[in-house]
């Protein structure tokens, strides 16, 4: 069978080239190993890594296997620009430095590489756009322009009906417009999506109260207080509902909770005093009424407190 051979002259020339070039150990110096994952720590197979030597522009290619692992043996020393690509993922670039010549093969463990999917990037952009819309809507609400806020928020919610921030501001916007049923609907969705978000429970309590639903309002205020005990306004509102229902001891507990946060609040002091008066604790009532009077700048309130002080003092 005929076959091609290398001539003696060609063999000699090849040998001369080998002997005049870098020694073999310097041509195969580094053995790289590493893995590529997604953001959920799942391995990504089929990722192509291209290493380009800055000095020589020579490139070296390798792909990850089913376990997301790659190996590259025999890499010469140098500084490499590395590009990692895979369909459906954002490409990633890095610089790997292996500048020290090695006389033997040097094993290098590359730190885990994480690629972000195009879907996650698009979701991130959507969230950024939604955040801008929500921020602008907040500015409209601060200017008492709920219609401008609603126009922006509806655009955000068209893209993501479960955006809790947008739903919350929508509830506040409807509240400013005194559209309490719509406000309750929006805020109820918020507490379903983010049950630990105390401001949503508080706002929901306000809207229920404005609709005349004291039981629902109280439940919302109590939830807000469980999540945020320092909300003295929720404490006052819950106390007022309880006081009106003749649940005096519970009402006093709410007013005292508010006073723990704002000890000089004249409204909380007055209502705590009224609870003590109702319980026949006249000295405590007078003490709270007097402190409320000292803290109050409202002429009508001062007049009312003077009458309460005379009443409690006479009974005591």
Task: Briefly note the structural class of the backbone.
Answer: alpha/beta
Distance between the termini: 127 Å
- Quick one: how many beta strands? 8
Shape: elongated
**Series of H and E elements:** HHEEEEEEEEHHHHHHHHHHH
Question: Biggest sheet, in brief?
Answer: 4 strands, mixed
At the first level of CATH, the class of the largest domain is: Mainly Alpha
Indicate the multimeric state: single chain
From the alpha-carbon coordinates, what is the Rg to the nearest angstrom?
37 Å
In CATH, the topology of the largest domain is named Serine Threonine Protein Phosphatase 5, Tetratricopeptide repeat
Helical amount among residues, as a percent range? 55-70%
Given the structure, what is the number of helices? 13
State mean pLDDT (0 to 100 scale).
Answer: 86
Work out the strand percent: 5-15%
Counted up, domains total 3
Write a concise keyword list for the protein shown above:
316 residues; 13 helices; 4-stranded antiparallel β-sheet; alpha/beta; Serine Threonine Protein Phosphatase 5, Tetratricopeptide repeat
How would you describe this protein?
- By secondary structure, the chain is of the alpha/beta class.
- The chain folds into 3 domains: 28-116, Sandwich (Immunoglobulin-like), CATH 2.60.40; 117-228, Alpha Horseshoe (Serine Threonine Protein Phosphatase 5, Tetratricopeptide repeat); 232-316, Serine Threonine Protein Phosphatase 5, Tetratricopeptide repeat, CATH 1.25.40.
- The chain contains 13 helices and 8 strands.
- The protein has helices at residues 8-20, 24-27, 118-142, 146-159, 164-176, 180-193, 198-210, 214-227, 232-244, 248-261, 266-278, 282-295, 299-315, and strands spanning 30-37, 48-53, 59-63, 69-75, 78-85, 92-98, 106-109, 113-114.
- The strands form 2 sheets. Strands 1, 4, 7 and 8 form a 4-stranded mixed sheet that branches.
- Strand 2 and strand 3 (59-63) form a beta hairpin.
- Helix 4 (146-159) packs antiparallel against helix 5 and helix 5 (164-176) packs parallel to helix 7.
- The protein is elongated and about 100 Å long.
- The protein starts with 7 loop residues before the first helix and ends with a helix.
